[in-house]
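Sharing a chain and its predicted structure for anyone who wants a worked example. Both blocks are below, sequence first, tokens second.
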Amino acid sequence: VSILLSIALLLNSFSVVFAYHQVEDEEPIIISDEKLAIYEEMKTGQTLTADQQILFYQKLGYSNADLAQIKEKLYKNDFAEIPKNKNRAYSWYEFSGFQHHYQETDNYCTVACTQMTLQYLTGILYTQGHLDEVIGIFGNGKNVSFMITALEQYQSKNHYVFRSGASVSFSTFQNHMLSSVKTYDAPATLGLYCVSWPYAGINDAHAVTVRGVTSDASALKIADPWYENPASYVVNMRVAYNNITTHSSAGYVF
């Protein structure tokens, strides 16, 4: 009896999160109430600043090595621009096995991008309805920083950060897009405030996931969740950059 009581008390301090994912024979994810409280603190409805993200990871108890990598992703800007290959002899770096999904409602672009990212990283297809609850704020594609709470709860292969487009140079953006494939093997997502996007109107807010980058970082292959757009298409790197620097809450997670 005492053993059963001890187990019951232990489980009482944890929340069992059934992710309602569309995969059979998976165990439910167990997250402590303490960590769930930290995730809830992040749901402010405001774009996450770099300092807020550092504090978030510190509260989660990440190691000094992890925090050092996170800080580098958040603050480093002294990258050299990658010259475009004038001979067009570039190759594509792509996420092998990446699967595309369209968003299920008009404001689920951020949610669908989270779904695609988590499926690539974990092999689990979480439902968009569940991920919308986890993100905690309506799926506004203009602010992809809201994705971080879901990405950190359900995978550990990459510690995602949000960079405001206004805080990065073009060369930094190039390098981050390239490293998302070559170094981290973790898809990045762009939070657009559109001025010249090929499949969106002026001032439209949208989120798209990056499924490939050219070796000279001159172009991106996009996974677009909007159901009237092509599932995949190529966008010039400079065009992508111009569409993440036009609003204070636009940017990207990687």
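Comments welcome. The mean pLDDT is 86.
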